[in-house]
Amino acid sequence: MKAVKTLGQFIIEKQADFPYAKGELSRLLRDIGIAAKIVNREINKAGLADIIGEAGTTNIQGEGQKKLDVYANEQFIAALQSGGECCIVVSEENDEYIYIDSEISKNAKYIVAIDPLDGSSNIDVNVGVGTIFSIFRRKSVGGKATLEDVLQNGTEQIAAGYVIYGSSTMMVYTTGKGVNGFTLDPSIGEFCLSYPNMQIPADGYIYSINEGYYTHFPDGIKKYIKYCQVEDDKTRRPYTSRYTGSMVADLHRSLIKGGIFMYPITAQAPNGKLRLVYECNPMAFIVEQAGGKASNGYERILKLDVTELHQRSAIMIGSTNMVEKAEEMLACFSPQVTKRNFDGVVTIQ
Ligand SMILES: O=P(O)(O)OC[C@H]1O[C@](O)(COP(=O)(O)O)[C@@H](O)[C@@H]1O
Ligand SMILES: [Mg+2]
Ligand SMILES: [Mg+2]
Fold first, then answer.
1. pTM of the predicted structure, to 2 decimals
2. Residue 16: C-alpha distances to residues 12, 20, 70, 289 (Å)
3. DSSP E strands: which ranges in 214-269?
4. What sequence ranges are listed for the domain Fructose-1-6-bisphosphatase class 1 C-terminal (predicted)?
5. Whose CA is nearest to atom 10 of ligand 1?
6. Ligand 1: which of 58, 117, 118 to mutate, judged by most atoms within 8 Å of the beta carbon?
């Protein structure tokens, strides 16, 4: 009988990879794991408990908050506050960053950016949702950490991960030394190593994009979708289309089976929809660590300048050969959408 390795055991074991580690990051990952279990408990009985439906409030993105958005946000912030390793939390559900001003956190050096509940539109219909997190080390020394400490580019991340609340609940994360996945075993209440050293296939046969916005996409994206749909045995096309409406679920599938997930600019979202700091950057770090690729169609996501907490970005991410093909189509058919448009000038062809 193969011994299970719990997340806690794995984290401690991997601490040896970081000679100067004092266990702070380990404890921070532990705290995130604890909050994920609490949120998982509520999600699993969402239909029974008064936890589905609208919270009646709106976040800074102008989106109506779901009760589970608010609940998950509270649980992760509480776990990070009581854990003592986090000095600032940036959350999709909070307009401003939260400075953790407690005795236990006075020497904390980590900043956590979080999307507490990803795929909110799927909560009430029992489709897979997730949590996404990104961890940075503060740059400033002494005193209160500042906005500068928060607005770091994706390349500065020291860890990132997601939790998927699906047919099983998993936590997948990287600390820059590969990607590992852990499945929650409800009978022992522990995340157990189930997907060691995850590698995304260089090629995949599944594309994932909300084709409902097709007419609003740049020409290059339209051409790539057509490319995916053309009959060609040599390249196993047409590819299959899969889109759940939860970035975490669509990317988890791509990580395991190969594939590409895209959320380009549209007329409605001229800078893209998904948020750079707590959606695009952490998922890009994970996918790159698993051997894949992530860009906004022109530039590496992790290299994009972070200037605002809730900044948006276009994204195409997944199997390297598929992302490069899509980039090729954009460069060819939507060149003028290159850099200039991402500075806000939009001309949809
Ligand atoms: O409904 P759309 O426009 O396709 O958007 C779906 C996308 O929006 C998101 O739901 C945004 O995330 P949140 O649910 O955290 O706001 C992604 O998970 C998903 O990929
Ligand atoms: Mg999200
Ligand atoms: Mg969310």
1. 0.94
2. 8, 9, 36, 19
3. 240-241, 260-263
4. 200-330
5. 119
6. 118
Q: Which pair of tokens denotes residue 229?
A: 């749909």
- Chain position carrying tokens 């909300």: 210
Query: Ligand 1 in contact with 91 (CB < 6 A)?
Result: no
CA dihedral 9, 15, 21, 26 (to 10 degrees): -40
Q: What is the mean pLDDT of each run of 10 residues along the chain (349 residues)?
A: 87 78 88 97 84 88 92 97 95 95 88 97 94 95 86 97 97 96 96 97 97 96 97 92 98 98 93 97 98 98 97 98 97 70 44
What is the C-alpha to C-alpha distance for residues 67 and 47, in angstroms, rounded to an integer? 12
Contact 138, 111 (CB under 8 A): yes
Backbone angles phi, psi at 2, to 5 degrees: -70, 130
**For 74-122, what is each residue's pLDDT tens digit?**
999 999 999 999 999 999 999 999 999 888 888 899 999 999 999 999 9
Q: What is the pLDDT of residues 128-173, one digit of tens each?
A: 999 999 999 999 888 888 889 999 999 999 999 999 999 999 999 9
User: What distance in Å separates the CA atoms of residue 26 and residue 21, rounded to the nearest whole number?
Assistant: 9
ipTM reported for the complex surpasses 0.95: yes
In the chain, what are the domains?
7-195 (3.30.540.10), 206-348 (3.40.190.80)
> If you measure from the C-alpha of residue 232 to the centroid of ligand 2, how many angstroms do you get, rounded to a whole number?
34
DSSP 3-state of 111: strand
Nearest alpha carbon, ligand 1 atom 6: 245
197 is written with which tokens? 């050293």
**Distance separating alpha carbons of residues 94 and 91, to the nearest angstrom:** 5
Q: Does residue 119's CB lie within 6 angstroms of at least one atom of ligand 1? A: yes
